[in-house]
Amino acid sequence: MSTVEERVKKIVCEQLGVKEAEVQNTSSFVEDLGADSLDTVELVMALEEEFETEIPDEEAEKLGTVQDAIDYIVSHT
Amino acid sequence: MSLEGKVALVTGATRGIGRAIALELGRLGAEVVGTATSESGAESITAGLKEAGVKGYGIVMNVADAESIDAGLKQVNEQSGAPLILVNNAGITRDNLLMRLKDDDWSDVLETNLSSVYRTSKAVLRGMAKARWGRIINISSVVAGMGNPGQGNYCAAKAGVEGFTRSLAKEMSNRGITANCVAPGFIDTDMTKKLDEKQRDAMLENIPAGRLGEPEEVASVVAFLASAGAAYVTGETIHVNGGMYMG
């Protein structure tokens, strides 16, 4: 079983079309990984699906980096 | 212009333009799911598709009801897969001059003709975004641009659909998803059969083609917009009206 971190990074790679090596925990989705607003919406939807959880809009807005997403998933699942 | 392997959802497919669209998309190879508001309507869609040798079936869905849309789409997703072609065709009229128009006439038409388009579009977008391919085709009306006495509610809803479609087109175009409108003029359907001879004659005077349109003549334009060849057409309203109005 993969860790949350590995699963989050895998989804980030798939959704944003970036290579695994580019995805650091500190990477910002928008600034470092080139996500546009629609990408971030899709990313959140993909995370919701993978981890079978619902991320409310006001929480989703705060997920700026890979680590933010990992932390959110760890504390909410 | 093959639509082989695509699931197409057509709302209001029991009669008229919706029925013709369902048959045409099916003829081009799509698996067609047509919606009706009643069980008997859904059965007649299933029977009609079968008779035409088209893959597909009818389901019950009330497009004015969010829960009914969710339930219908769940069924389609499980039975056939995510629809990558959505044709929002279901619509009603509650005509009256504004001075006599009831609140319910206004809200029913806005719910069924405009809010429904928002709901169904939202419901299918996820599947389309994942597939990086999608076609949303909304049936508007010539009166959205022209205006028409006695149809303030209907004109408002249809003009709303066109504005919504342009926004949707901009939001989703970099995902391979297009959104367009087809705006029929006077087409020979039950909706226009209600008119008396005098109204009909008056109408024909304003149609350079000198005749009503056939539902199939709308369906063929919808089929084009659904096809691979229309990938670069988005946010557009195509008029199908025999020349009565040219935008």
Automatic annotation (TrEMBL), chain A:
Domain (Carrier): residue spans on this chain: 2-77
InterPro entries the record matches: ACP (IPR003231), ACP-like_sf (IPR036736), PP-bd_ACP (IPR009081), Ppantetheine_attach_site (IPR006162)
UniProt pathway annotation: Lipid metabolism; fatty acid biosynthesis; Glycolipid biosynthesis; KDO(2)-lipid A biosynthesis
Modified residues (O-(pantetheine 4'-phosphoryl)serine): S37
Localization per Swiss-Prot or TrEMBL: Cytoplasm
Gene Ontology CC: cytosol; membrane
Domain of life: Bacteria
Gene Ontology biological-process entries: Kdo2-lipid A biosynthetic process; lipid A biosynthetic process
Gene Ontology MF terms: acyl binding; acyl carrier activity
Listed PROSITE patterns: CARRIER (PS50075), PHOSPHOPANTETHEINE (PS00012)
Modifications made to the protein after synthesis: 4'-phosphopantetheine is transferred from CoA to a specific serine of apo-ACP by acpS.
Annotated keywords: Cytoplasm, Fatty acid biosynthesis, Fatty acid metabolism, Lipid biosynthesis, Lipid metabolism, Phosphopantetheine, Phosphoprotein
Main location: cytoplasm
HAMAP family given in the database record: Acyl_carrier (MF_01217)
Function statement: Carrier of the growing fatty acid chain in fatty acid biosynthesis.
Family: Belongs to the acyl carrier protein (ACP) family.
Descriptive protein name: Acyl carrier protein
TrEMBL record, chain B:
Gene Ontology terms describing biological process: fatty acid elongation
Top-level enzyme category: oxidoreductase
Organism domain of life: Bacteria
Name of the protein this chain belongs to: 3-oxoacyl-[acyl-carrier-protein] reductase
InterPro entries with a match to the protein in the record: 3oxo_ACP_reduc, KR_dom, NAD(P)-bd_dom_sf, Sc_DH/Rdtase_CS, SDR, SDR_fam
EC number(s) per entry: 1.1.1.100
Catalytic activity: a (3R)-hydroxyacyl-[ACP] + NADP(+) = a 3-oxoacyl-[ACP] + NADPH + H(+)
Binding of NADP(+), residues: G12, A13, T14, R15, T37, N62, V63, N89, Y154, C155, A156, A157, K158, I187
Function: Catalyzes the NADPH-dependent reduction of beta-ketoacyl-ACP substrates to beta-hydroxyacyl-ACP products, the first reductive step in the elongation cycle of fatty acid biosynthesis.
Pathway linked to the protein: Lipid metabolism; fatty acid biosynthesis
Active-site residues per Swiss-Prot or TrEMBL entry: Y154
Domain Ketoreductase: 6-189
CDD domains: BKR_SDR_c (cd05333)
Subunit structure: Homotetramer.
Family: Belongs to the short-chain dehydrogenases/reductases (SDR) family.
Alphabetically ordered keywords of this record: Fatty acid biosynthesis, Fatty acid metabolism, Lipid biosynthesis, Lipid metabolism, NADP, Oxidoreductase
One Pfam family it belongs to: adh_short_C2
GO MF term (any one): NAD binding
